[in-house]
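User: Design a sequence. Structure:
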């Protein structure tokens, strides 16, 4: 199971929770230490992770179904947290989502752990599939949901293909993060992208927010 799914429910008894969270944290930090030491993902066995974290293998398997889901949660723990959407308008929600993407791109540039993990994940079909399913796909669905609400509320033209619109909003940041690693990611970039794209996608009678 994923890290989020492994945490006790809010109504579960509090007894034993600190110990459980300490074990989970030790496992995640153990994997991070191995990655920071340059250990390739292919060489991160459950046995080695357990030994580094000072736990038994059973402690890992109680929380994750395998190495792939564990590594996904390690990367998620090292990335900036998911944003809280203000919900005040489509524009405001898009700004929050794109600013978070900008922050993740900056973190990947500045963190050797994230840079190496992202690079290596793409060479492992199983790990990349897990990361895509647990992280990338939900983030894309979130943007699509925001765009559909924008259409419903008259902030986005009804004839706009939301799948294409998603790529128009997210694409510029991905280009700079992946294809142009030397390109700047300055403050205000998310707002510039959102307002530039919205200028062409708003209903003709709509005014800028």
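Assistant: Done.
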């Amino acid at each position: 199971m994923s890290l989020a799914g492994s945490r006790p429910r809010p109504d579960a008894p509090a007894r034993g929770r600190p110990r459980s969270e300490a074990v989970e944290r030790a496992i995640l930090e153990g994997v991070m230490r191995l990655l920071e030491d340059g250990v390739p993902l292919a060489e991160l066995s459950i046995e080695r992770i357990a030994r580094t974290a000072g736990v038994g293998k059973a402690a890992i398997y109680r929380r994750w179904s395998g190495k792939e889901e564990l590594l996904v949660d390690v990367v998620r723990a090292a990335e900036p947290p998911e944003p809280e959407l203000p919900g005040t308008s489509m524009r405001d929600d898009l700004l929050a989502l794109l600013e978070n993407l900008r922050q993740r791109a900056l973190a990947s540039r500045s963190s050797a752990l994230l840079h190496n993990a992202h690079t290596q994940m793409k060479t492992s079909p199983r790990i990349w599939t897990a990361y895509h399913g647990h992280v990338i796909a939900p983030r894309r669905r979130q943007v699509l949901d925001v765009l559909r609400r924008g259409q419903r509320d008259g902030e986005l033209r009804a004839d706009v293909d939301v799948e294409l619109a998603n790529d128009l909003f997210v694409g510029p940041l991905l280009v700079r993060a992946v294809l142009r690693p030397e390109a700047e990611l300055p403050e205000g970039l998310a707002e510039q992208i959102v307002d530039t794209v919205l200028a062409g996608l708003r209903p003709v009678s709509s005014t800028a927010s």
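The radius of gyration is 20 Å. The mean pLDDT is 87.
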